[in-house]
Amino acid sequence: MSMDTSTVDPTSGEYVASTMSDEVVIELVQVNKWYGEFHVLKDIALSVNKGERIVICGPSGSGKSTLIRCINRLEEHQAGDILVNGTALDTNVKNIDAIRRDVGMVFQSFNLFPHLTILENCTLAPIWVKGMPKAEAEKVAMQYLERVKIPEQAAKYPGQLSGGQQQRVAIARSLCMSPNIMLFDEPTSALDPEMISEVLDVMVGLAETGMTMLVVTHEMGFAKKVADRVIFMDQGEVVEQNTPDEFFNNPKSDRTKLFLSQILAH
Amino acid sequence: MADTTQSDVVFRPKPSLPPPPNTVGVVGWLRKNLFGGPVDTILTIVGAWLIFTLFYSLYEYGIANAVWTANSYRECLDTVLPNGEKVGHNGACWAGVGVWMNQYIYGRYPDEEQWRIQLALALLVLWLLPFWLPKVEAKIQTGLSCVLTFPFLAAHLFLGGEASIFLMITSSIALALFIAVWLNVITSYAMNKSIGKVLVGVSGMADKDDRLHKYVLMAGFALLLVMSLIYVSSWDLPEVTTQAWGGLFLTLTISGIAIASALPSGVVLALGRRSKMPVIRVFCTVWIEMFRSVPLITILFMAVTMMPLFLPVALNPDKLVMVIVAVCIFASAYMAEIVRGGLQAISKGQYEAAQALGLNYWKMMTFIVMPQALKLMIPNIVGNFIGLLKDTTLVSIIGLYDILLMVKASGQDPNWLGLHSEPLLFAAGVFFIICFAMSKYSQHLERTIAGGYGRR
Ligand SMILES: Nc1ncnc2c1ncn2[C@@H]1O[C@H](COP(=O)(O)OP(=O)(O)OP(=O)(O)O)[C@@H](O)[C@H]1O
Ligand SMILES: [Mg+2]
User: Fold this and answer.
1) Which of A29, B20, B258, B302 has the smallest number of CB atoms closer than 10 Å to its CB?
2) Fold held by B244-456
3) Which residue's CA is the nearest one to ligand 1's atom 9?
4) Ranges of each domain in chain B
């Protein structure tokens, strides 16, 4: 499948055909989490199929970040079960390591390693986690940097790149571990408008390859274009989930309607 | 996205003009910084006069009226100046400093054995030299091997006599590592290959898998180790007990070991203090707080007067060993807090990104957190090293003849009775040179590596 989407406006145009299969890769059962007294996730049940693209939206503080951070154990849940690729997330460090090898994550603030070059950012984990020889890791990294269209920046440091370029490097860095699931936590919220589209481009391209994606975002154009399912959260609960078509045109809950009227108002 | 449509109004930037005269160049600088107004001008003139008189009197005392050759302090004082007056206390008596120079530097270490100290110093310099040779890889391994094993080799050289098995083995390891480091330097420059690659190539295993390569390297090192063990055990050095160690040599030995051990132990303590395991955390916190809250001199007194009471006589604790352990403990506690401060400057996002990529705790710390934190800490670390070097002069209070006590001793020599200022000035000069060099080097380090990662 082609990754060259530079001619496509990521927020409009053709819906990217889904390659979703029946195999379940993420399963959340009655997941609950508290921050001290504060009940941040309430009975979350969610199952994600292989190749499915899910967009999670909701007002600030509704627990979206917390939810996806539980999936690679950056946050610990206190009740319920989370299974990723059939492995249960518990206190067993081996399971956590195994899951993190297969789950990539992209952050709002990029979190590139500022003391390493772009190439080193991309090769560090393959070399030290997977034990890949350096030369091979560099070859793989250059392939992914080409896919996110910045191979010429490989020798620079993150501080020398624009926000959009940094976020694309962050995506490439995750992909170098060849994950089968990618988590995105508001990947474009820290970016200027003209850089948002270059990052969304890359994400649409990734969706075309059949990657399983969970994306927290307020980019509704992106949701319409690639999502198989949109999940709306408020106050730690999944209020509504539906296909993007139904979700935007025919929302069920009054809370969803209010939210949509607010974000689509401008 | 550039707007390429034509418009009626075309923007043309104004050309840059040169700045007005008197604001640039030497004149501009003088005007701005020294003669900015009447007050500035007066301050400049008064300051210049003060500096001049200070330096002139220093010059008169230290150079113009100084006595360079004499056999006793009396002779110095009685030397007649060209204008017919006696020098008295108006000129420095460097003659005495010259006579005592050897003791200031080596203490009472026998003259004919001092080459051992010089040899150790040369080895140290050579060991660290590859750091500045751009072609040589494995810099971290070089530094670690030096820090971890050189002290034993040096101790063996300095002490001589019947070395213990422990010292024999550790110093052989050190020697073997040193030779390996330099073989690596030679092959890196002569053949553009690391010693490991050359060895593997010679053994004809180049196309075999990595595990075999490791065996080849291990065999090579084992051979080197056996040879250096045979060589070291053939040494026949007269014993020089630690009582005879002194002067600048002793000061640098104590502070050198403390400095070398401070960073590793500080890192371990700082990580321990942030650990999630309560036993480790409490232990590290107590250690740090306890030794940071006590003056060094008390720790030193405890080490030399009380510790021997608790330790079995058979261990025969040497006073110098006790002192070095005490200084190291003290240094580790201070360094731990510096490292902890540096760790706190690393954002949570860095930890999360590392974890999300699957790095475990130690890999995350080694590759992501520590390199960034250490770079931030360079000024503090070097400041701490400088403080440590100066603090070691406290060992003179418990009777170790470091440079400061040696300097005092020379004023009590019957020949040089009353010679106090000149030796002290000399010691001050020595400390200034060492500390200033360290401080300059740290500034250089900050500019080169700690600079904004490619952003200059
Ligand atoms: N470490 C923490 N300790 C205590 N409370 C926290 C912590 N992290 C998040 N919270 C709280 O949990 C709630 C959910 O946080 P979360 O970051 O998941 O929200 P979000 O939906 O991602 O919001 P946003 O759109 O602003 O990113 C918020 O009210 C937040 O204040
Ligand atoms: Mg969030």
Assistant:
1) B20
2) MetI-like fold (1.10.3720)
3) A66
4) 34-101, 111-239, 244-456
